[in-house]
Write a structure and sequence with these properties.
With 46 residues, the protein is mainly α. Helices cover 43% and strands 0% of the residues. It contains 2 helices and no strands.
């Protein structure tokens, strides 16, 4: 849906999971589902 593969999400390259990346992802998800970013929760389970 967002154009990100599972491999990209699980990759261990030099990219860092930063607050800016989190905010941008939250905004993208909100736009797609017709919500506001403050209503989007991102949960990662290991």
């Amino acid at each position: 849906m967002l154009g990100v593969t599972t491999a990209e999400l699980l990759s261990s390259d030099d990219r860092e999971f930063t607050p800016v990346l989190l905010a941008a992802s939250r905004a993208d998800i909100a736009r797609i589902v017709g919500a506001t970013p403050d209503k989007v929760r991102i949960l990662i389970e290991f």
